[in-house]
Amino acid sequence: MFQSLSKNLEKAIKSLKGQGRITEINIASTIKEIRRSLVQADVHYKVAKQVTDAIKQKAIGTNVLTSVSPGQLFTKLVQDALTDLMGGMHSEVRLTGHPAIILVAGLQGAGKTTLTAKLAHYYKKKNKTPLLVACDVYRPAATDQLKKLGTELNVSVYTEPEEKNPHTIAQNAIQAAKQNAIDLVIVDTAGRLAIDKEMMQEIRMLKESLKPSETLFVVDAMAGQDAVTTAQAFNEQLNFDGVVLTKLDGDARGGAALSIRSMVDKPIKFISTGEKMQDLDLFHPDRMASRILGMGDVISFVERAEEVYNEEQQRRLEQKIKTNQFNLEDLVKQIEQIKKIGNLKEIVSMLPGLGKITQDLPLDEDVFKSCEVIIASMTPKERKNPHIIDRSRRERIARGSGTTIQEVNQLLKQFDLIYKMMKKVHKEGPSFFSSLPGLFKKVR
Question: What is the per-residue pLDDT for 186?
């Protein structure tokens, strides 16, 4: 989402390299480039000016330590300014009441129904018992979609196909939740335009009757400045508690994510970065600022990985690496685990140094397919002992997998590099991340 902005900011800050100190003169062009980069990324021009003015004021009044270059210091100032712009600190989601109620609102096509299911998945992992409520009485497919997602998640969905009043459906759902010891009710509502007075009156009345602990406004991050305008209009009518940005895995400029907090004065609480149910994260302004500046977000990466890997799995993997027993069967298992963590582009953007290297690569689910097909065409003995795969075996594997011998050779080279990488992780721990860019270049 922020690739273009990241590239432009890096280019702007690079102009300070070689400077002995920060002065109003030598940062003038840098400030100008940062402002231009923000506006090009669809950040509101008033917000862009506010941010760059704050950066300039802090930069000129800051002493540069002998151990820190002006470029490094300026990067930190930009990071702080972006963090402040997006809210400064993470804003907690309030879940009060018995049951707690989350009301989801927004435009059509913003991803509300999918987001409702993602919230259920998220809170189910937090030991909540969620109930999804289908209150979109205008789009029949919305109820069917919610029921399908509920079945996949093993989460209950409350529907009343014959009832056309969302207030009645919601109130009946609350009663059902109380009777069945359900502690979280998530209400999906119809998409509506802020200019539609009748529909806005309906959602206002629904909020007043339910008194939800959280009212979340779902906005498509690819909508640009329209997203900010829509959020402002909805907030005037609904006074929502927080924003959820969806489709942050897209290729749009992403300025809405940077503008919306400042323009609407409501916190961003969640971000959605893909189609999978696990592609939902709490929004941390400092972590997002770090990623925009190409510095990664290892904390979020570790949090995601911990949800997938348990201690026993980690212990077994470490033991295999330690005893030189890691093989192609284990590689396939690790690929499956990586898929569970989330969108591959999003994962890569969290690792320091890799974002810039991989920004032009087609990093999606398909990147694993040929690898999995090739390994599936091997015998169990070959998967456990890759070193025995000679020329004739490679030719047979290529024919069986519908690939070329060059692709088989490439896979085996990549496996060797991945194995070395894992040995390095096991040996060096956190310091391993500094060597990732070099290793990834070799894989390419």
Answer: 96
